[in-house]
Amino acid sequence: MYPLIAPRRALWIALSTALLAGCTTVGPDFSAPAAPTVPGYTRQSLPARTASAPGAMGGAQSFSAAAVPGDWWAQFGSAKLDTLIAQGLRNSPSLAAAQASLRQAEQTYAAQAGSTLYPTVTSKLGASRNQTNSSSFGQSGSATNTYNLYNASVAVNYNLDLFGSNRRALEALAAQVDFQRYQFDGARLTLAGNIVTAAFAQAQRGAQIQATEAILQAQRNQLDIARKRFALGAAARADVLTLQTQVEQTRATLPPLRNQLQQTDHLLAVLLGQAPGAADIPRFDLAEFTLPARLPMVVPSELVRQRPDIQASTALLHAATAQYGVAVSNLYPQINLSAGLGTQALTTGALFGPGSLVWNLAGQLAQPLFNAGLKAGANAAHASLESAGANYQQTVLQALRNVADALRALDNDAQTLAAQAAADSSAQQSLQLVEDQYGLGAASYLQLLIAQQQAQQTRIGLIAAQAQRLADSAALYQAMGGGVIGTNPAGSSAPMSVSSLSH
Q1: Which helix (H) or strand (E) holds 362?
Q2: Cα–Cα distance measured from residue 172 to residue 109, given in angstroms and rounded to the nearest whole number
Q3: Most exposed residue of 131, 250, 413, 485, measured as fewest CB within 10 angstroms of its CB?
Q4: Are 500 and 195 in contact (CB under 8 A)?
Q5: Domain limits at 59?
Q6: How many domains does the chain fold into?
Q7: Residues 54-78 pLDDT 10s
Q8: 424: CATH
Q9: Are the C-beta atoms of residues 469 and 292 closer than 8 Å to each other?
């Protein structure tokens, strides 16, 4: 009786202990870092509204706690810009690469989960031709025996994962999937932001070229008048040379502006997934854009849940935590179970007949007794965890700085635009006054040309300030995360929740 009950009891106790231990995962469980507690982004409080100035880009902007829309670029009111961004999101190779990396991470997780969460089952079918010699078995003589041996079997193997090494490894892979997903979101945000700012830059360069060409034409007219006066003896040659120098200096500023415009077109082509020589890039004008009157500004504690780079850094911290758990679990025992069932016979007809059944059960317990490398591996994983934590903190600080810079730029550049608008207004009034005097004969044509030139030079500064306000608004949308969190690429599927892997 006892010889029968004792093994059963021992087996039951062993299995019960193994199943209970199977729910144990050594190493720290991951918890997201605490959100920043700072109340604002800048030391000095921002005004409720930015400065305002006359004109389409001079309106005052205010801030609200509203969520950033996914299509934040639509706030600028340009259908051409919306079309370009849709094309870029559809065709960009960089976005396609980020999406492929996400699919790779998902499939890597699925492959590892399939081979570690569940038992592996393999089947085998074999045949062999064998010859034995009776002398090899201690028998007299040297008779040989030749025969065929056929076998078919099914084997099952399972790692009991007592201390959660496999589950921690899967947890790390699931965190890598999260990382790649946020990388995709970040790539999408960066692509949209680059297209938006490139469109603003193109409009700015085009307007500056037009204003510079107008200045150049006024200077050429001044030079023609000076040459005629010199021919009549009414002007000195030095005056002619001074004006000619001015003309050439202004003319020299046009090629760099055209080069910048062309490079912007090339950049837009690449962002749209096209070759620069084959792309048909539309022309933008500053007047077609609308300056958003209300801009999003969430508190820092919410920012960490909106920015893809912070979320990606959190995922890397999660992965490092799980990898540390893997390294710690390697210090504990490992149990592997295996079983096999099959048939074996000398002829194929008897392969599945009575008496051909063979089977086996095996269990293996491996406990490291001395391996100095395991402890060093755990220490290395812990150092990697500390590094990931420090990188997360740096990412959050950079994000806070990014937002602070964008907010200060919005305030300061609004004041710059107000000053440039006032200067442009004065220059236009001065030009109007000279035009009136010229019509009455109280001002010379040369004075009129000089006034026109000054007005155009002031307009160039106004153009730059208008484009900068648009760019500042786009920068704040990006700094706030761009509203891309939760937008998964088509065809992607979330893996098993990492929280469920620790139970």
Answers
A1: strand 357-366
A2: 9
A3: 131
A4: no
A5: 19-120+161-331+372-502
A6: 1
A7: 877 788 889 888 888 889 999 999 9
A8: 1.20.1600.10
A9: no
